[in-house]
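Appendix B, example 12.
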Amino acid sequence: MKKEIIFEPHFIDLMKSSTRILVVTGAGISTSAGIIDFRSPGGLYDVAVQRYDLPYPEAIFDINYFKRNPEPFFRLSAELLLADIEPSLCHRFLAALEKNGQILHVITQNIDMLHEKAGSRNVIEGHGSYRSGHCISCGEAYGFEDFSDPLLRGEAPRCSVCDGVIKPDVVFFGELLPDEFMKIYHQKPKADLLLVLGTSLTVHPIAGFALDYAPRIPSVLVTRDPTSYDRDFDYVFHCALDDFSQELWEVLDV
């Protein structure tokens, strides 16, 4: 049964008047599009361990393990992450807000590229994405179109220069976050509203980045379940993100 969502008049006024909204998104925004989250029971880590005989769940995104055995990552990418998926309604709602001139940045923990597919342009992929890649042997750079064919077959793409493995620019454990995110992390752009969607705020430093803003500007948290940080936000909604987006979209008429 769909949960009733009640928007206070002040919240609606805030959403209508904000023109520099800083959005932070996590796995919850993509689950309705068919991408399972990482840490829930039956999530991506559980699937990876069961299918690929990993020594530990996080090995699928461990750079040292990848260098020894890249096959599980590429098989998982083809099966789960790069299927024929479409953006969720929440993705499309954020794109509509951006088109309406209200979004400063969308900072996402996700690597699925669905924000851009929905039409958002001011996107910072804090954990990287498949949009580009580099050879782990010689460092040669590649665009997604250069290695997408073997990737979608679940095979390791090979470098045309040295025949090394091309690793997509997804941030693994043991790697630095993208310069684009670190720049905004340190500069802290001026925003007039924080909108956090589909994340329990446990993965740092993106979680810390959002929590630093929460007490300083009007802030909104939308998650399926309660988090340890609900009290830090001005408005908290525990509901499906698509339901929240649909109802707010109709009210705002953007």
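Residues 241-252 form the longest helix (12 residues). Residues 98 and 120 are 7 Å apart (CA to CA).
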